[in-house]
Amino acid sequence: MPYEWTPEQPDTGHDWQLSLWPYRSLLRKDFVLFMGATAALVALPLISLLGSVVVWALLPFFGLMFWGLWTALNISYKRGEVLEELVVDDTTAHLTRFNPKGDRQEWHANRYWVTVHLHPKGGPVENYITLRGGDREVEIGAFLDVSERLALYGDLKRALRGDSPL
Q1: Mean pLDDT, all residues of the chain
Q2: What's the CA gap between 23 and 16, in Å, rounded?
Q3: Would you say 62 and 47 are in contact if contact means Cβ atoms under 8 Å apart?
Q4: Which option is the CATH number for 3-22+83-161: 3.30.470, 3.40.1350, 2.30.29, 2.40.50?
Q5: What is the pLDDT of residue 1?
Q6: How many Å apart are CA 71 and CA 91, to the nearest integer?
Q7: Quick check: 130 and 137 in contact, CB under 8 A?
Q8: Angle at 124 (CA atoms; ends 118, 125), nearest 5 degrees
Q9: What residue segments make up the domains of the chain, in order of their start?
Q10: What is the pTM of this model?
Q11: What whole-number distance in Å separates Cα of residue 155 and Cα of residue 5?
Q12: Pick the residue with more confidence: 33 or 79?
């Protein structure tokens, strides 16, 4: 799962932290392998054309394709650099979202007034989860998969009730 609970602290018994991030199907090291394999597969047909003028006509198109793929994957990586951290102690729940452009969004509320809500169909995504507390309602884990959001909802309900989220 692309989220992780920090174990309870033995001295307080109530402090915990939840970190969420988008799932990565293509890791950075796999990105290098993928781009290398793509370059090799694209170069394979060019080998049969070596020594002819046609290779010079096709080479810019292969280069443009390779550059476009590289750029698209890098943009995808940049957009996926999101991290959400929910820290709950004895009195406060504090959610921080670190966005891809470097800005931060923060929300905090009294821990005992925070409620978790699941919107199966009404939100921007299926099984949309929000935290309500204080004067605002904020989303959490919108970038997760549908089943992951459902599992997260159950974990958050238990954790905010005081049961162990682990």
Answers
A1: 88
A2: 22
A3: no
A4: 2.30.29
A5: 63
A6: 45
A7: yes
A8: 65
A9: 3-22+83-161, 28-79
A10: 0.75
A11: 10
A12: 33
By C-alpha distance, which of 71, 73, 107, 62 is closest to 88?
107
Tokens of 16: 């915990």
Q: Token pair for residue 138?
A: 């904020």
> For 19-49, how does the pLDDT look when each residue is reduced to its tens digit (9 = 90+)?
999 888 888 889 999 999 999 998 898 888 8
Q: Which of 112, 107, 110, 147 is nearest to 130 (CA)?
A: 107
C-alpha 18/C-alpha 6 separation (Å) is: 6
Q: What pLDDT, on the 0 to 100 scale, is given for residue 85?
A: 95
Q: Name 20's bridge partners.
A: 3, 84
3-state secondary structure the chain: CCEEEECCCCCCCCCEEEEECCCCCCCHHHHHHHHHHHHHHHHHHHHHCCCCCHHHHHHHHHHHHHHHHHHHHHHHHHHCCCEEEEEECCCEEEEEEECCCCCEEEEEEEHHHCEEEEECCCCCCCCEEEEEECCEEEECCCCCCHHHHHHHHHHHHHHHHCCCCC
